[in-house]
Amino acid sequence: MTALLLRSGTLLDVETGDRSHADLLCADGRIAEIGPGLRAPEGARTVELAGATVLPGLIDAHVHVTAATADLGALPAWSPSYATAHAARIMSGMLDRGFTTVRDASGADFGLADAQAEGLLRGPRLMFCGKALSQTGGHGDSRPRGTRVHDGHQCCAGLGRVADGVDAVRAAARDELRKGAHHIKVMAGGGVASPTDRIDSTQYSLDELRAVVEEAEAANRYVAAHAYTARSVSRALRAGIRSIEHGNLIDESTVAEFREHDAFLVPTLVTYWALKTEGREFGLPENSWRKVDEVLDAGLRALERAHRGGVRIVYGTDLLGGMHRHQNEEFRIRGEVQQPLDVLRSATSTAAELLGMSGEIGTLRPGAVADLVVLDGDPLSDIAVLADPARIRHVVQNGAVV
Fold first, then answer.
1. Which positions fall inside the Amidohydrolase-related domain (predicted)?
2. pLDDT tens digits for range 368-379
3. Angle between helical axes of 110-117 and 80-96 (0-180°, round to 10)
4. What pLDDT is recorded for position 152?
5. 44 CA to centre of own chain
6. Which one of 37, 208, 272, 291 is CB 3.0 to 4.6 Å from 204, fit for a cystine?
7. Which pLDDT belongs to residue 148?
């Protein structure tokens, strides 16, 4: 048995908000026991915490670990081995920032997930969707106007694949599921980083969206949709999509639809701030940079509207290129409109629920996977302590200090 004893920590139960001063024993990758004065098994490593806060490992539910540049149109020309080298560096940084699980929202594949699980590269547990499904000219179609050929081979490093029509989107969804996708991603509206669409456009017909949902549900998986406007979000929710990514331009009627369809919202506010301030430095094309203002100021208002309306909100960042280093800044931004415990739940227990891993991750309960963050400071008093990775003392993954 491999064991780790964290002694004299302040354990934070994210479900209740309660704190307890206790020891925490990890054994064989799981949380084995919590309580005062626990005895370390023979051969166990003991770490004295002196009252430091212990949280579940953090979950970021919207990342792109292969997006080492903000010029997404350049990625398909990269060598897969070159993209993998970048992804390994990006994932290692995420783990250092306290994120022990991430959900990739297009780009990562089974190879990266398997490499992480087997210990071949250092990083968070990776839930992947493969390539996002996009209509011709949609948010996942990275071709400029003058380019006709689209190479959708699985080894290309791009984030999207083009599929048009009900039969084609069914085949594309089945192909990603065949390769082990944990969820399917569709582009249901326009975006910032795509060259030929408008942010206020809707994308895919309702029949196409419903076909993707049917295929995912048949495989006991779910669909996440990129969508900004109230109209595109509403269409996605009516089609049965479980997770809306971004949602910056939703209105009050959309909030009611989230509750009606029991769906999740994954805002990604930090990426717009980062794209506006340094996006061009990291490759964001000028025409994409000019789109940022359309969603930048609206994002915080949408978050406040969704929070007030009781929508289940999950932590996401969507950062690109050299901007991945701002991953924790999302905590500070959300703290402007949400209480610290709500923000913390979005990156732990609520995120675990979206991923279908409630009780496995995002909790300190015995029996859960021993993914933990040891923090100097109290995030319930000031959520901004999580925005500073320097305040993270230890990261524990599968019961080992990493």
1. 53-402
2. 999 999 999 999
3. 50
4. 61
5. 33
6. 208
7. 61
pLDDT exceeds 60 at position 389: yes
Tell me the two tokens of residue 147.
């380019």
Summarize pLDDT for 6-30 with one digit per residue, the tens.
999 999 999 999 999 999 999 999 9
Per the listing, tokens 């301030």 go with 277
CA dist., res. 60 & res. 326, Å (int): 12
158-172, 200-214, 279-293: which range is least confident on average? 279-293
Between the alpha carbon of residue 123 and those of residues 148, 149, 182, 346, the distances in Å are: 37, 35, 18, 20
Buried b (16+ CB within 10 A) or exposed e, 219-238: eebbbbbbbbbbbbbbbbbe
User: Which of 1, 103, 107, 123 lies closest to 59 in space, CA to CA?
Assistant: 103
Q: Which of 48, 58, 154 is nearest to 387 (CA)?
A: 58
| pLDDT on residue 150 | 59
At residue 124, the pLDDT reads 98
- For 228, half-sphere exposure in the C-beta direction (CA atoms, 13 angstrom radius) is 25
Q: Which domains does the chain have, with CATH numbers?
A: 3-57+363-401 (2.30.40.10), 58-327 (3.20.20.140)
> How far apart are the C-alpha atoms of 243 and 398, rounded to whole Å?
27
DSSP state of 369: B
Task: Take residue 392 and report the two structure tokens written for it.
Answer: 């993270």
Q: DSSP assignment, residue 40? A: P
Query: If you search the block for the tokens 């005895």, which residue do you land on?
Result: 39
